[in-house]
Design brief:
- With about 240 residues, the protein is an alpha/beta fold.
- Helices cover about 45% and strands about 15% of the residues.
- The protein folds into two domains: about 50 residues; about 170 residues, 3-Layer(aba) Sandwich (Rossmann fold).
- The chain has nine helices and eight strands.
- The protein starts with 6 loop residues before the first strand and ends in a 15-residue tail after the last helix.
- The relative contact order is 0.15.
Length: about 240
């Protein structure tokens, strides 16, 4: 190593890769990502070339959605072709967002919500405590786009007032507003929601059922979820 080679601490490396420090610790512990240990406390230090090499290995070794930083505020669209696929996408996105000082929201019709919570509990047995503590908010879609947007704005503002460090949403749009709105109205809703989530920095995964959507409708939905194309496609289409 060159005497002048810059070493990044874990916070700087997490920012460089746009992932959480927790993910970095897990990857270094497993040997997936190289790091150096310095000082008596054996703190992690990272070489830029090692981080760049790690990035170049993607998407074959890309992190799952649950390993992506929930503070990033991405607006993603997940496409599913079965009820189980919907569950897997939702659970993957929610699982590691249930942390102190964070609030996660799951918006879906009752049966879909029940299925997701059952599977989520298998990965996180403390799910009832998460709900009781307000770390996970279970909701059903409102009867109109305007009412739903009002719900999100009120909820996000309350969480921000309570000093939540980050917010995360999973919404089964197809099963909720998708049953009440025309395709072009759904796109308008997503455009309005996008402004709202940017304002509050909310990481969001909107779920759409491709079994009941035309190719053109899916294309229109993807256009308002531009962050989708920053991640490996196989992580979002199931």
């Amino acid at each position: 190593m060159s005497d002048h080679e810059e070493l990044l601490d874990i916070k700087q490396a997490a920012r460089f890769l746009k992932v959480s420090e927790t993910s970095l610790r897990r990857w270094t512990n497993s040997g997936r990502l190289a790091c150096l240990r310095v000082g008596r406390r054996r703190e992690r230090r990272f070489r830029r070339r090692d981080l760049l090499a790690f990035v170049e290995e993607q998407p074959a070794g890309a992190p799952a959605l649950s390993e992506l930083p929930h503070t990033e505020g991405s607006h993603l669209c997940g496409l599913y072709a079965s009820d189980l696929s919907r569950v897997n996408l939702a659970v993957s996105f929610l699982a590691e967002g249930l942390l102190p000082e964070t609030v996660s929201y799951l918006a879906a019709e009752p049966e879909a919500r029940r299925q997701i919570v059952v599977h989520l509990e298998r990965r996180r047995p403390s799910i009832e405590a998460d709900v009781a503590a307000g770390r996970l908010v279970l909701a059903q879609y409102a009867s109109s786009a305007r009412a739903q947007l009002d719900f999100w704005e009120t909820s996000f503002a309350a969480a921000a007032t309570a000093r939540a460090r980050s917010l995360r949403v999973v919404g089964d749009v197809s099963g909720g507003l998708g049953k009440r709105l025309a395709p072009h109205e759904l796109v308008e809703y997503e455009q309005s929601y996008d402004k709202l989530r940017l304002r509050f920095g909310v990481g969001t995964l909107c779920l759409y059922d491709v079994r009941h959507s035309s190719g053109l409708d899916v294309l229109d939905v993807l256009k308002v979820h531009r962050d989708v194309f920053r991640y490996p496609v196989e992580r979002l289409f199931s």
